[in-house]
Amino acid sequence: MEPAHSGLSRWTGGLCQVATLTVLMAVQGAAPLLAQAPYRRHFISVGGGGGVPGAEVKPYLATSPVVRVAYGYRFAKNFQADIGLDTIFHAAKVRDFYESDFGDLRIKDYQFLVPMGGRAVIPVKRVLLSAGGGGAYMRYQERVRQPFGNSFQIDCPVCRSRSGWGYYALLGASVALDRYDHFRLGVTTRVYRGRTEGDAFGPLPAIRTRDTWINTVGEFTISF
Questions:
Q1: If we measure between CA atoms, which residue out of 126, 114, 132 comes closest to residue 189?
Q2: What is the greatest pairwise CA distance in the chain?
Q3: 75 vs 82: CA distance, rounded Å
Q4: How far apart are CA 117 and CA 136, in angstroms?
Q5: What is the chain written as a DSSP string?
Q6: Which one, of 176, 173, 194, lies nearest residue 184 by Cα?
Q7: What's the Cα-to-Cα distance from 101 to each of 115, 144, 145, 159, rounded to whole Å?
Q8: In this structure, is the dihedral angle defined by the CA atoms of residues 58, 59, 65 and 67, taken in order, positive or negative?
Q9: How many CB atoms lie under 10 A from the CB of residue 72?
Q10: Rounded to whole angstroms, how far apart are CA atoms 35 and 48?
Q11: Confidence of residue 16 (pLDDT cuts 50, 70, 90)
């Protein structure tokens, strides 16, 4: 029987190819329209959704909530540079405690994915279609609950982490909510692939792994 992660790897590889072909075909086909269409340069997005782990971390990490913040700069009518942060909550299901001078403090895990790349953007009336990709930094981090908020930070010498680099591909669509195109609502899927290494992390052992994440998020965007 074929391993499950083999099929997922082919699927995510196929999405990367689809994103690339979409960029090339859409830009070529829509070039005459893009030359005449006005556009905004700055895009700030926030949203939430779900992250699905795959490849070698699938047996150890669980599908979990994702919160996304992102910024895009449209340097040309149909091309945009992107940077952002996907925060995945408690995929390793860590529920430990740190015995501090202030009592037992809860330790939980977070996964941080930082995409840095770009996309092609194709306007179709009030809808924006996008496809792209780039590099990504991946970090899994345990953090201790801070009882005093930002006024006083408690270090966590027992908290573990692992990190690495990879790449991502995205497909997205959004629709304008107002006639001046300041506010948009949409959905974007990012597929991350990379390698992480470091400490044992929840049930994930201290080995180098091939990691995949499929993060689908509903986004609210302000543009100006």
A1: 132
A2: 66
A3: 11
A4: 8
A5: ---HHHHHHHHHHHHHHHHHHHHHHHHHHHHHHHTT----SEEEEEEEEEEEEEETTTTT---EEEEEEEEEEEEETTEEEEEEEEEEE-TT---EEEEETTEEEEEEEEEEEEEEEEEEEEEETTEEEEEEEEEEEEEEEEEE--TTTTSSPPP-TT--EEEEEEEEEEEEEEEESSTTS-EEEEEEEEEEEEEEEES-BTTB-SS-EEEEEEEEEEEEEEE-
A6: 176
A7: 38, 13, 13, 16
A8: negative
A9: 23
A10: 33
A11: low
Residue type, 12: T
| Beta bridge pairs of residue 76 | 79
What are residue 136's DSSP bridge partners? 115, 166
Task: Tell me the pLDDT tens digit for each residue of 73-108.
Answer: 999 999 999 999 999 999 999 999 999 888 899 999
At 2, the pLDDT band (50, 70, 90 cuts) reads: very low
Residue 87's nearest CA partner among 110, 70, 117, 105 is: 110
Instruction: Measure CA 176 to chain center.
Output: 22
Output the six-digit token pair for 70: 């992102």
Q: How many CB atoms lie within 10 A of CB 114?
A: 17
Closest to 211 (Cα-Cα) out of 169, 181, 166, 158: 166
- Is the per-residue pLDDT at 114 higher than 80? yes
